[in-house]
């Protein structure tokens, strides 16, 4: 099982859209067994996969979330969904991923995940890696995608420690591009501090208006930059209202009768596989 974190320091770059749709294409077009892990307190990937009513039922029925992966002992926490709750740590074998309607599995985030922000240096950063190592031994999945928060938090650190690769989605605008070198610096620092060896699986330009000067300048920049030219994906994610509406409505790119979008994501997914699995 290959583990890939989707990371960016900036929100609003289409990171979750890219993560859930690549998971969907991997499942339906490449017959891959995929696990999606949502470690973002903003909860976006989980909202894409589970509607509000089903999520409430899932939590009330004892469904497991990312909090259980980190094995918290929290006998008197307050849940946004159900009020005061108590829950003892459970073994990894008891953490059962949610089966989505799209054919891949999900470890959901938690609405009040921000309440459980971890303090660094306690070893908790390794628990996601430990859990995914357990999952890897089961042979159940081919690829695990981790949707990370847009902050240099302990959640992001845990994801990088657990990952074989990281993928960077970025808008092709000057502000987003400026932040990428900062992101690379933070990732390098985390790798040095924690001894993780994840490698870059590439840079995907998102929300791209390909007929604009801004986009063409971004492509020229990344194509010519020594530290980026080998990582830039050939195909961008175009700026389309269909994509934004689809995410809010629980609709995926494969559901849209849009040949160009399907071709775009097919190309991106194929390049993703080549970089991650050498296919």
Report a brief summary of the structure.
By secondary structure, the chain is of the alpha/beta class.
What's the layout of helices and strands?
Blueprint lengths: L1 E5 L8 H15 L4 E5 L5 H6 L2 H9 L5 H4 L4 E6 L3 E5 L10 E2 L5 E3 L19 H12 L4 E5 L6 H9 L2 E6 L3 H21 L4 E7 L7 H12 L16 H9 L9 H19 L2
Parallel strand pairs: 1-7, 1-8, 2-6, 2-7, 8-9
Antiparallel strand pairs: 3-4, 5-6
Can you offer a commentary on this structure?
Helices cover 42% and strands 16% of the residues. Helix 1 (15-29) packs across helix 10 (259-277) and helix 5 (127-138) packs parallel to helix 6 (154-162). The chain has one domain (2-43, 120-277): 3-Layer(aba) Sandwich (Rossmann fold). The two termini are 14 Å apart. It has 279 residues and is of the alpha/beta class.
Question: Which labels suit this protein?
Answer:
two-stranded antiparallel sheet, 42% helix, single chain, seven-stranded mixed sheet, Rossmann fold, 279 residues, 10 helices, 9 strands, alpha/beta
């Amino acid at each position: 099982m290959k583990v890939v974190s989707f990371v960016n320091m900036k929100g609003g770059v289409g990171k979750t859209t890219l993560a859930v749709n690549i998971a969907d294409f991997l499942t339906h077009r490449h017959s891959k067994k995929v696990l999606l892990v949502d470690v973002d307190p903003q909860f976006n990937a989980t909202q894409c996969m589970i509607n509000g009513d089903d999520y409430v039922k899932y939590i009330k029925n004892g469904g497991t979330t990312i909090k259980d992966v980190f094995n918290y002992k929290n006998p008197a926490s307050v849940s946004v969904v159900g009020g005061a709750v108590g829950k003892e740590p459970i073994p990894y074998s008891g953490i059962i991923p949610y089966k989505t309607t799209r054919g891949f599995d999900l470890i959901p985030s938690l609405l009040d995940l921000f309440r459980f922000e971890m303090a660094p240096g306690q070893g908790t950063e390794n628990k996601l890696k430990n859990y995914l190592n357990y999952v890897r031994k089961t042979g159940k999945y081919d690829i695990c995608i981790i949707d990370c928060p847009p902050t240099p938090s302990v959640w992001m650190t845990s994801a990088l420690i657990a990952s074989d690769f990281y993928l960077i989605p970025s808008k092709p605008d000057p502000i987003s591009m400026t932040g990428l070198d900062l992101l690379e610096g933070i990732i390098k620092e985390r790798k040095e501090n924690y001894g993780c060896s994840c490698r870059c699986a590439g840079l995907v330009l998102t929300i791209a208006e390909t007929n604009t000067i801004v986009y063409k300048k971004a492509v020229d920049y990344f194509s010519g930059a020594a530290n980026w030219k080998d990582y830039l994906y050939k195909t961008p994610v175009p700026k389309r209202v269909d994509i934004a509406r689809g995410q809010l409505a629980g609709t995926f790119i494969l559901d849209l009768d849009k040949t160009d979008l399907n071709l775009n994501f097919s190309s991106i997914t194929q390049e993703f596989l080549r970089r991650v699995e050498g296919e």
